[in-house]
Amino acid sequence: MRLTLLAVPCLVLAACDPEIPDSAAGVGFEDDYPSYLAQREAELTGGAANDAAAAGTDVATAEPVLDENGNPLPEQTVVTTNNPGISDEQSFAAVSERESIQSDAARIEAQREVYEFIEPTAVPERVDDGAPNIVTFALQSTNAVGESVYSRRGNTTAEGLARSCARYGSSDLAQEAFLASGGPEKDPKRLDPDGDGFACYWDPTPFRNIAAN
């Protein structure tokens, strides 16, 4: 009785299991395996040819070669590159085939014929338009940054100096405006509160170093 009860669930489970498909069904090589391999190899080589053609390469395909058992040998596709867009200048063999010492000499001579030598000219003189020249001022002044030389009235805070200097795009422009408005002796725009003659953190040192060298 117990054997009968155990057999019933097994039969039920077997009936519920899906049918396992046959991996060889419908592929067409049950009776002729060598022919199937030859057909498969032809499909694979055809796919390689299509991929290579899309990539711009030349592909040569050969008929499948069979061994002594009638099975096709692998790797029946030969791919050769023929892309004119790829340079071969790094290939000594390729370059030596088309170039020689004579051709190099002719190329150098052709380049010499079109070579143009331009004589250097004098640096143009700076036009004196009356505007302040910060380079000239840097070379004429001798005091260091922060060294007070000119008297200033009133107190200017760091915040006030920052607001005044924010009106100019650079310290060079601020120094030009400072000199144009009476600096370094006068400072109506409050750009030089310490009286060193240099407005808005402008530094004459780079100009002095160039002149010294």
Could you characterize what this model shows?
The protein has 213 residues and is mostly helical. It has a domain at 134-141 and 156-212. Helices cover 43% and strands 4% of the residues. The protein contains eight helices and two strands; from the N terminus they run H-H-E-E-H-H-H-H-H-H. The protein has helices at 2-16, 33-54, 92-98, 101-114, 134-140, 158-165, 171-180, 205-212; strands spanning 58-61, 77-80. Strands 1-2 form a two-stranded antiparallel sheet. The radius of gyration is 45 Å and the shape is elongated. The model is unreliable at 20-30 and 56-61 (pLDDT under 50).
Low-confidence stretches: 20-30, 56-61
How much β-strand is present in the residues?
A: under 5%
Helix count? Answer: 8
Distance between the termini: 115 Å
What distinguishing features does this structure have?
213 residues, mainly alpha, 8 helices, 2 strands, 43% helix
Summarize the structure.
The protein is mainly α and 213 residues long. The chain is 43% helix and 4% strand.
Describe how the helices and strands are arranged.
Elements: H1 2-16, H2 33-54, E1 58-61, E2 77-80, H3 92-98, H4 101-114, H5 134-140, H6 158-165, H7 171-180, H8 205-212
Antiparallel strand pairs: 1-2
